[in-house]
Design brief:
alpha+beta, 2 helices, about 130 residues, single chain
């Protein structure tokens, strides 16, 4: 997962009346029992809120396992958005526009490759 991915983005709406008091973005390696969480600020209920989750390591907390953060980046098997609550109740809402965002160098290399391919094609057509 860490190859070229700098962060994740998504939009989240938690419906009014939902019993939610915590919000986390979680990456897991089930095979090794490794889990890391990134705490997010709980949005106002009923409001569509955009989130960016960096993969820099800062702000992440290990909740299970004993490997370092670099391990989980290279061995992620599952990505989750975790809504936690201390009380029982309904939880409803929606997640939209989930995306992985490449690091800038990956985007630049891809753009240069595309420009090179276009340039070669134009030379061949002449």
């Amino acid at each position: 997962m860490g190859d070229g991915i700098n962060q994740f983005s998504f939009d989240l709406t938690i419906n009014p009346g939902s019993s939610v008091s915590e919000l986390f973005f979680e990456i897991t390696n089930l095979t090794e029992g490794e889990t890391w969480q990134y705490a997010l600020t709980l949005p106002a209920f009923g409001t569509n809120t955009s989130f960016l989750v960096p993969l820099s390591g800062a702000g992440w907390t290990q909740t299970s396992g004993d490997e370092n953060f670099a391990f989980i980046l290279g061995q992620t098997e599952e990505i989750s958005i975790v809504l936690g609550s201390a009380t029982a109740g309904n939880v409803s809402g929606s997640i939209d526009n989930f995306a992985s965002i490449p690091e800038p160098s990956t985007t630049i290399i891809a753009a240069l490759g595309l420009l090179t391919a276009i340039s070669r094609r134009r030379r061949q057509d002449v």
